[in-house]
Amino acid sequence: NMTQRTLMSYFNKK
Amino acid sequence: MFEARLLKSGQLKKILEAIKELLKEATFDCSDSGIQLQAMDDAHVSLVSMCLKSTGFDKFRCDRNLSMGINLESMVKIMKCCSNDDIMTIKAQDNADTLTIMFETKNQEKMSDYEMKLMNLDQEHLGIPETNYSCIIKMPSSEFARICRDLSQFGDSLVIACTKEGVKFSTSGDIGSANVKLSQTSTFDKEEEGVTIEMTQAVCLTFACRYLNLFCKATPLSTQVILSMSGDVPLVVEYQIEELGCIRYYLAPKIEE
Question: What is the ipTM of this complex?
Answer without folding.
Answer: 0.96
